[in-house]
Description:
The chain is mainly α. It has helices at residues 3-16, 23-35, 49-66, 69-77, 86-100, 102-105, 110-121, 130-141, 151-164, 175-204. The protein contains ten helices and no strands.
Amino acid sequence: xxxxxxxxxxxxxxxxxxxxxxxxxxxxxxxxxxxxxxxxxxxxxxxxxxxxxxxxxxxxxxxxxxxxxxxxxxxxxxxxxxxxxxxxxxxxxxxxxxxxxxxxxxxxxxxxxxxxxxxxxxxxxxxxxxxxxxxxxxxxxxxxxxxxxxxxxxxxxxxxxxxxxxxxxxxxxxxxxxxxxxxxxxxxxxxxxxxxxxxxxxxxxxxxxxx
Length: 211
């Protein structure tokens, strides 16, 4: 899952666990949804406890997604020379699938949700790793997350990621093949996403009562 799904899953988990009114916890889960891509290694209390729960949530989302049979079936559909980067491709595609059916997953508009995420994550950006600070500033400035339903923006995002990868990769030109496979990817996403939410609730519900 990419940023939109990570933020949505964090918010949904907080709501489902009865923490929607506990702003600090929900904010921490959202911040962890960002930092999970940039904070590596053991968590030793270098960040607020709620942020570290959010980072653990991010890591668990990635682990559950990467190991899921439905995702493996998507990867098997990709050309062999794409599969090394298939996880990245699918993460971005899943954000697209979520955007296309946003009204089925959330009671507020996509724009309202993403603006709320930016407002909760941006104030603490000076305390994030430099790369994370740059990423959230970029996402907010160009309102990237609201535009994920537009396939041109999916290809543009993959192109930006391609430039950050230090070796030759297919991310900048895989858009046409992903578009061809999109009906199958979307079908897999529809089965994966609710199962993922249920699994996360089962695993994190008891541990989210921290003060």
